[in-house]
Design goal:
Length: about 575
C-alpha cells in the first residue's frame, strides 16, 4: 500500500495543490463492543467548484462527519457542505481536528460550530488525526449515532445505485461504484442498467479497501465496485439503477437520479497540434467519466482550429480539468479564457436569447434589455479585514445580501457579485487583501439586469472575432485599452502600418498603432531639388497604402494566448 500521508488524495493534481477534487470511497472494518462493523466511508472535496461530488456522495450515505480545522475555524465551504448534509436529512457527527497544534483554538472553533449550526458543544469531539487523539472515539460515536442503511434482503431482486465510475484499463473497461439496496451482485451474474439496453456479465466485484479488493459478491447495504467489460464511457450513467436480467425493465422502479449540474463558466480546449484532435477527444471522454459535472461539445476556432467548448462549475474546476488532461493522459492542450452565458432581449422580436460567445451577439439588432449571471458569494473573514473586503466587492459591482458576526473575531458576509467579475482574479485578490485568512464559497444567484456591450477588436479595420468580448459598459474602455496594448506588444511590425482598434458598434473606444518598417528612399539623394525627395516619399507612401489594403495580419497561437491571458 502507498504510504502517502494523504492516501485518499490519489490524483497528482490533488497532491500538488493540497486539495481534494475527486470523491474517494473506502471500506474499513472496526470492532466495537465485541461486534465487527463495516464502515463505508467517502472522502469528499471541500471547494465549491466540486460541490457536485459532495451532493452525489451524500446520496449514498446515511450520515456525515463534519470536520473543522482547529486553526482555520469555520470556512465558507464548511457552511455550504453542512447545509447540503442537513437538507439530505443525514445524521451529523461533529469534530474539531488538529487540536494538537500549538496555535489551535479548539474552544473558539467549538463556539463557532455551536453558533453557526446549533450543535451542542458537548457533542463536538476534539481530535487529532495526526497523533490519533480520540480518533477511536470518533469512530465509535459514528457507529452509535449514524443508523445502518435502510435496505432490502438478500432474497429480493437486485437493485444497486450507481453513483460513480472511472475508466480502469483496456481489459477491465469502466469500473462502476455502487451501493447495493437489495439482492446481491456476484461474479458471473448478468445485469442491465435501467438507462441502457445492453446485457453485461460481471467479471469482477469487490470493495474499496481502500484499493480494489475482489470479494466475489456484494450484499445489501455494502458499497463496492464491479466491472463488466463496459467499453464506452456513455454506458455508465451516474445515478442509474443496476438490476438482474432475470427481470424485465417494466418490473423495475428506478432510483431517483441526480440533478444535472449547471455549468457556471465555459472555456475552450484545443490540441496544441491540430493533428492530435482525436487523441484529445478520447482523453476528454475518459476524463469526463470521472467528472460528470463537465459538459462537452465540439467547437471550431479561427485561430486554434478544431477543439471542444466545455462547461465547468467554476474557474478552479476548469484549471484542474485541464491539468488532469496533461498529467493523467499526456495531452498537450490549449485552454482559452473562461466565458459566461448572458441574456439579451431583441426589440424586433421581443424574444430573449442566450449569448455564450461574442459571435452569438445579435449584430445589427436593437436591444431592449440585457442580463448577466451572478453568484451569491459567502465570505468568512477576520473582522480586521472587513473594510478591505467591502472595498473589493464594491469594486467588483457587488450588492450586499447580509452581514453577521459568528464570534468576536470573524464575520460572515454575503454578496451578490456578477459572475464575470469573479473570473477576473477575484479569489486571488481576496486572499492577498486578507493575508490569506478569508475563505470563499458561492452558489448560483440567478440573472440580474446589466448594461452589456460587445467590444470588437479590429486590425486595420477588419474584425478579429476570437478576440472580441462581452462586458459591462463601465468596464469596456479599460478592457478594450488593455487588449489593444497587449496586441501591440505581441504583433510583429509589418512593412505597412497596423491600426489596432477596440470598438463598441461603430464607435472606437481605444486605439494603438504599430508603425511600419520604413526604408530611407532619400538616402542616395545628395543635395539637389527638394521636389525630387518629395516625389520619392510620395511614391513610397502610395506603395505602403496599397500594401496595407491587400496585406493581412495573421495572429499566431502564441500571440492569441498571450493576449487572452489578461
Amino acid at each position: 500500500m502507498d504510504r502517502n500521508p494523504v492516501y485518499l488524495d490519489k490524483l497528482q493534481v490533488e497532491r500538488q495543490r493540497g486539495i481534494t477534487v475527486k470523491a474517494q470511497a473506502a471500506t474499513m472494518l472496526y470492532t466495537y463492543k465485541g461486534e465487527e462493523y463495516m464502515l463505508n466511508l467517502i472522502d469528499t472535496p471541500g471547494h465549491v467548484d466540486f460541490n457536485y461530488e459532495v451532493s452525489r456522495s451524500l446520496r449514498a450515505c446515511e450520515g456525515a462527519i463534519l470536520l473543522v480545522d482547529a486553526i482555520k475555524g469555520i470556512q465558507a465551504q464548511t457552511m455550504a457542505n453542512f447545509w447540503l448534509a442537513y437538507e439530505a436529512d443525514l445524521q451529523i457527527v461533529s469534530a474539531v481536528n488538529k487540536v494538537d497544534m500549538k496555535n489551535a483554538l479548539p474552544g473558539l472553533v467549538t463556539q463557532q460550530i455551536t453558533t453557526s449550526f446549533g450543535i451542542p458543544s458537548d457533542d463536538i469531539l476534539h481530535i487529532s488525526a495526526k497523533t490519533g487523539l480520540r480518533v477511536f472515539d470518533l469512530l465509535e460515536r459514528t457507529i452509535e449515532k449514524i443508523p445502518p442503511p435502510k435496505v432490502g434482503t438478500r432474497e429480493e431482486p437486485l437493485r444497486a445505485f450507481l453513483f460513480d465510475s472511472w475508466y480502469g484499463n483496456d481489459w477491465s473497461g469502466v469500473v462502476c461504484l455502487i451501493k447495493v439496496r437489495s439482492g446481491v451482485i456476484k461474479h458471473g451474474d448478468t445485469i442491465r442498467t435501467y438507462q441502457g439496453e445492453k446485457e453485461y456479465t460481471v467479471t469482477d466485484v469487490g470493495i474499496m479497501y481502500p484499493e480494489q479488493e475482489s470479494t466475489g459478491i456484494l450484499y445489501p447495504g455494502q458499497v463496492g465496485y464491479f466491472t463488466c467489460n463496459m467499453k464506452s464511457t456513455g454506458e455508465a450513467m451516474v445515478g442509474d439503477t443496476v438490476y438482474s436480467t432475470r427481470e424485465t425493465r417494466d418490473q423495475v422502479t428506478p432510483f431517483e437520479g441526480f440533478k444535472k449540474s449547471t455549468p457556471m463558466v465555459f472555456g475552450g480546449l484545443y490540441p496544441a497540434d491540430e493533428g492530435d484532435f482525436n487523441n484529445l477527444a478520447e482523453s476528454i471522454e475518459k476524463l469526463a467519466l470521472t467528472d460528470r459535472a463537465v459538459t462537452i461539445q465540439k467547437d471550431t476556432n479561427d485561430i486554434l482550429g478544431l477543439g471542444f467548448r466545455c462547461g465547468f462549475l467554476g474557474m478552479l474546476h476548469m484549471e484542474v480539468f485541464s491539468q488532469r488532461l496533461r498529467q493523467e493522459h499526456g495531452t498537450s492542450v490549449i485552454s482559452t479564457a473562461p466565458q459566461v452565458t448572458f441574456k439579451v432581449q431583441i426589440e424586433r422580436t421581443k424574444e430573449w436569447m442566450l449569448v455564450s460567445t461574442p459571435s452569438d451577439w445579435p449584430e445589427g439588432e436593437r436591444l431592449i434589455a440585457s442580463e448577466e449571471p451572478r453568484i451569491l458569494a459567502t465570505i468568512v473573514t477576520p473582522k480586521e479585514h472587513m473594510g478591505a473586503v467591502l472595498k473589493l466587492v464594491t469594486e467588483k459591482r457587488g450588492e450586499q445580501h447580509s452581514l453577521k458576526f459568528i464570534d468576536e473575531t470573524r464575520v460572515v458576509m454575503k454578496y451578490y457579485i456578477p459572475l464575470v467579475e469573479m473570473l477576473q482574479q477575484f479569489f486571488d485578490k481576496l486572499k492577498s487583501t486578507t493575508s490569506g485568512y478569508a475563505s470563499l464559497d458561492y452558489e448560483d444567484g440567478g440573472y440580474a439586469p446589466s448594461d452589456l456591450v460587445k467590444v470588437t477588436i479590429m486590425l486595420n479595420g477588419k474584425p478579429v472575432p476570437p478576440l472580441s468580448l462581452i462586458t459591462h459598459r463601465s468596464r469596456a474602455y479599460e478592457q478594450g485599452k488593455t487588449l489593444a496594448q497587449k496586441l501591440k506588444g505581441t504583433i510583429r511590425r509589418q512593412l505597412f502600418e497596423v491600426a489596432i482598434q477596440a470598438a463598441i458598434g461603430s464607435k472606437v473606444i481605444a486605439r494603438e498603432t504599430i508603425k511600419a518598417y520604413r526604408k530611407d528612399v532619400t538616402a542616395k539623394c545628395y543635395g539637389g531639388d527638394i521636389t525630387r525627395k518629395r516625389k520619392l516619399l510620395e511614391r513610397q507612401k502610395e506603395g505602403k497604402k496599397e500594401m496595407k489594403s491587400v496585406g493581412n495580419i495573421k495572429l499566431s497561437q502564441e500571440a492569441f494566448m498571450t493576449v487572452l491571458n489578461l
